[in-house]
Design a protein that fits this description.
By secondary structure, the chain is α/β, with parallel strands linked by helices. It has 4 domains: about 5-195, P-loop containing nucleotide triphosphate hydrolases (Rossmann fold, 3-Layer(aba) Sandwich), CATH 3.40.50; about 205-400, P-loop containing nucleotide triphosphate hydrolases (Rossmann fold, 3-Layer(aba) Sandwich), CATH 3.40.50; about 405-505, Winged helix-like DNA-binding domain superfamily/Winged helix DNA-binding domain (Arc Repressor Mutant, subunit A); about 530-600, DNA polymerase, domain 1 (Orthogonal Bundle), CATH 1.10.150. About 45% of the residues lie in helices and about 15% in strands. Bound molecules: adenosine-5'-diphosphate and zinc ion.
Length: about 600
């Protein structure tokens, strides 16, 4: 008799119950239906095809665009005792032959293939002679020209349907927007299939945006104490900044390595490998890093520069906390970021229509940074979802941001720009407002202006915040060709005349160390768990992973180790009841971990 999905989930993967729409998707595919599955990163897409692969007869063919990802998935599946293999260009000839032989012999449950390989006549005719459980098309948005990951080979995957009409096809992606979704359905000929769309919220990620002050120190304050010994990614815009930041973090005794397209291939691979296989490596990277990395225990993603859009931000921060445990998304944001992006938008030579879209995207991103609302509500709104209540797990929920009627303050700032001739940067404008005595003020005789010294009721940091917000609102424009001087935007008349009122946010006060007052970091380990035991279990896991050359998380996830440290099982049966421990892992590692738990040196 065919295996039941829930039995496979429990005995092979060691999970108790399906999540969200998994069960529905799985039943649908097992019954032979086509499906398009949209789930956020970490939503559990893999099981949607892995479980049917084990319930249906024959081999499941999984199309995946990224070799690193394939390798990881195969390693993880083998740990669960699933007969999995991958076929791609990185495989030595002999091994490829062996995989093909196993395929022919029906000795595989799941085979991962790169699209260009799959579509060779040689491979297709091999499949003609195999019993096929299903086709899974991972990262299905690669078929769409809308996304930035377009892969022409994906277009030809529609042929699979004609050639193998009896094998169900399931396409999966985390890319949500509707043009891409329509494109996938059209190009993969999934019109008769069902669509499963999951909500996009990632409740375990805590979103925070800090006004940039001393970005490095702020980053350090964020990393130290809250994320000691944890893996994470720090994103920067340029290669130079990646190198500098990584070197500086390393000098502060953090295990940080750079990653960008300019590094030579072997160094890049080595850094990625360390990130995957060791605990607690921080990768400082340009956005190129992270695509196709399925590391579940990335505990934080930090942005030192603004991403290109909210989509990019959501994708990048989404790499944190795939395992569902608490994770942090932190970003430092300042006037220069706004300036840079505005400049890029203005000088872009894209067609008008494209420019308008880019402009809207930029406004949404800035709106997110400057919001006084719950950040998660703003994010989900943007993706067309509604979160009824503020989330309680973002900075604006945890430390509510005050907004105030900033009309008068804005008027002072704007007229100061006007009176000084619309050519000076924020530093000098603050000097004038605060009644400073600098060379420049003397040189231009700005002490005689009516705006000189009218701003002493605010601190310099407050004025900086005001200018940043006015630029973000488009009321001031930064002259990026020159020296970053500010001039008035077209809309500022109404403000100066008092016809339009302006609400401003009051940035949180910084403490002495330059960091914003910290809400306590989300605790990964509950108080009831034994921290010392957890560390011992981690060390054991690392030993086992090293011996096999696989990442530690394919042996056990953190969540499984935390469960061990909490419940301290003493027998195999008790151990088997914990999440993430299926039959194969129980046999393979059960006794080893029981011994660690029983050891006397755990306090
Ligand atoms: P995605 O591919 O959607 O990003 P994954 O398939 O990698 O997500 O799943 C994310 C994590 O959630 C994995 O670590 C996986 O083991 C875990 N997971 C998925 N489904 C379940 C479930 N039903 N119960 C427990 N853990 C699950
Ligand atoms: Zn919130």
């Amino acid at each position: 008799m065919a295996r039941q999905p829930i039995d496979v989930l429990r005995s092979v993967f060691g999970f108790e119950a399906f999540r969200g729409q998994q069960a529905e998707v799985i039943d649908h595919v097992i019954a032979g239906g086509d499906a398009l599955v949209l789930m956020p990163t970490g939503g559990g897409k893999s099981l949607c095809y892995q479980v049917p692969a084990l319930c249906r007869d024959g081999v499941a063919v999984v199309v995946s665009p990224l070799i690193a990802l394939m390798r990881d998935q195969v390693a993880a599946l083998r740990q669960f005792g699933v007969r999995a293999a991958a076929l791609n260009s990185s495989l030595p000839f002999d091994e490829a032959r062996r995989v093909e032989r196993d395929l022919r012999a029906g000795a595989l449950d799941i085979v991962y293939v790169a699209p260009e390989r799959l579509l060779t006549e040689e491979f297709l005719s091999l499949l003609d002679n195999c019993k096929l459980a299903l086709f899974a098309i991972d990262e299905a948005h690669c078929v769409s020209q809308w996304g930035h990951d377009f892969r022409p080979e994906y277009l030809e995957l529609a042929e699979l349907h004609d050639r193998f009409p009896s094998a169900p096809r399931i396409a999966l992606t985390a890319t949500a927007d509707s043009p891409t979704r329509r494109d996938i359905v059209a190009r993969l000929a999934l019109g008769r299939g069902r669509q499963f769309v999951a909500g996009f919220d990632r409740p375990n990620i805590r979103y925070r945006v800090a006004p940039k002050d001393n970005a490095r120190q702020q980053l350090l304050a964020f990393l130290r104490g809250t994320h000691d010994g944890q893996s994470g990614i720090v994103y920067c815009l340029t290669r130079a900044k990646v190198e500098e930041t990584a070197a500086w973090l390393a000098s502060q005794a953090l295990d940080a390595v750079p990653y960008h397209a300019g590094l030579d291939k072997s160094r890049r691979a080595a850094h990625q490998d360390r990130f995957l296989k060791e605990d607690g490596v921080v990768v400082v990277a340009t956005i190129a890093f992270g695509m196709g990395i399925d590391k579940p225990d990335v505990r934080f993603v930090a942005h030192l520069d603004l991403p290109k859009s909210l989509e990019a931000y959501y994708q990048e921060t989404g790499r944190a906390g795939r395992d569902g445990l608490p994770a942090d998304a932190w970003m430092a944001y300042g006037l220069q970021d706004v300036t840079k992006l505005r400049h890029l938008a203005q000088t872009s030579d894209a067609p008008e229509a494209q420019k308008r879209i880019e402009h809207q995207k930029l406004e949404s991103l800035l709106g997110y940074c400057e919001t006084t609302r719950c950040r998660r509500q703003v994010l989900l709104d943007y993706f067309g979802e509604t979160l009824a209540e503020p989330c309680g797990n973002c900075d604006t929920c945890l430390e509510p941001i005050e907004s105030y009627d900033g009309t008068e303050v804005a008027q002072k700032a704007l007229s100061c720009v006007y009176r000084t001739g619309q050519m000076f940067g924020v530093g000098h404008l603050c000097d004038v407002l605060l009644g400073g005595e600098t060379e420049r003020i003397a040189k231009f005789r700005h002490q005689n202006l009516s705006t000189y010294g009218i701003g002493t009721d605010l601190k310099r940091a407050d004025w900086r915040s005001v200018f940043r917000q006015l630029v973000a609102m488009g009321l001031l424009i930064v002259d990026v060709e020159g020296h970053g001087g500010l001039r008035l935007g077209a809309d500022c008349r109404a403000v100066l005349r008092g016809e339009r009122r302006i609400a401003l946010r009051r940035d949180p006060r910084r403490g002495r160390a330059g960091a914003a007052p910290k809400s306590k970091a989300p605790a990964m380990i509950a108080d009831s768990a034994d921290e010392a035991l957890f560390q011992n279990l981690r060390a054991e896991r690392m030993r086992l992973a090293k011996a096999q050359g696989v990442p530690p998380y394919v042996v056990f996830h953190d969540s499984t180790l935390i469960a061990m440290a909490t419940h301290k099982p003493a027998t195999r049966d008790e151990l088997a009841g914990l999440p993430g421990i299926g039959q194969t892992k129980l046999d393979r590692y059960g006794d080893t971990f029981l011994a660690v738990i029983a050891r006397k040196d755990n306090p």
